[in-house]
Amino acid sequence: MNHTQEDIRHNWTKEELLAIYNKPLLSLVFEAAGVHRRWHNPEEVQLSTLLSVKTGGCPEDCSYCGQAARYHTDIEVQALLPTETVVAHAKRARDGGSTRFCMAAAWREVRDNRDFDRIIEMVKQVNGLGLEVCCALGMLTESQAQRLQQAGLYAYNHNLDTSEEYYDEIISTRTFDNRIKTIAHVRDAGITVCSGGIIGLGESRADRIGMLCTLASMEKHPESVPINALARVKGTPLENNPKVDIWDMVRMIATARIAMPASMVRLSAGRLEMDEVEQAWCFMAGANSIFTGEREKLLVTPNPAISDDLDMLSRLGLKPMGKTW
Ligand code: SF4
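A: This is the predicted complex of the input protein with iron/sulfur cluster.
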């Protein structure tokens, strides 16, 4: 691994990133694979487990999401899980080889109430298991971010989803600027940032690049950048969108890898619709993190089980990564 922090750029232009995204595919993958090798051990893949600790009934209108209360989906609403249940899931994830445990709640924002007190307790207990603890709870204030940090939260997931220009087409109940503010609160509290987006929402190439450019222009790049392919949930406004082309995923991952070389680039939602060869291309393009799960769900859409993932990694000559801290 041959690099210095000074090699990280924060002044990418959209034109530069679009030119990278549009390179001939094999040249793009070759370049991204080179960057990946300079910054990371290319044989290691981080395994993260995601648990929905509160499911459905969300007041937001994200048009890709089956948990929005206003859409008629098959998702079962589930109140905040008991702490013991969450900790038992976290133990199983750790014993299965995960090093990161992410707890997601379908909230618009965190409220300073008893549910937040319970989340704080979950963070403390999961942290005590030696796992990197991550939460995705919606918008946060500065003081809430500080409370989470003091409880031992390692990372906070808050995706940009798409470009600033396309944002209103996908979500009307909050603004792009709201997202940026929460990410700033997380950063200021000393929690690492997990932020990426989704392709397949009907966005243009310019929107994909716009989103990556916002992330890559941050004073400090997000430590994790999830790249999701739309999981088309029945009952949501985007249920009939076309399936994301695998080469679009590979291009997004490769461009994210080149623009944010030190970050973990996570192959996230939509992985179940990819076969092993397609996933191998994503790893070659610089993805080095996946969500895996005992419940075989990524939040509310299907995801491969951890044993299947371990078999796949072994066939590809890859191995689970240890903790990143
Ligand atoms: S993505 Fe999150 S905020 Fe948006 S509707 Fe789904 S649960 Fe709510």
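Residues 25-39 form the longest helix (15 residues). DSSP finds eleven helices and twelve strands in the chain.
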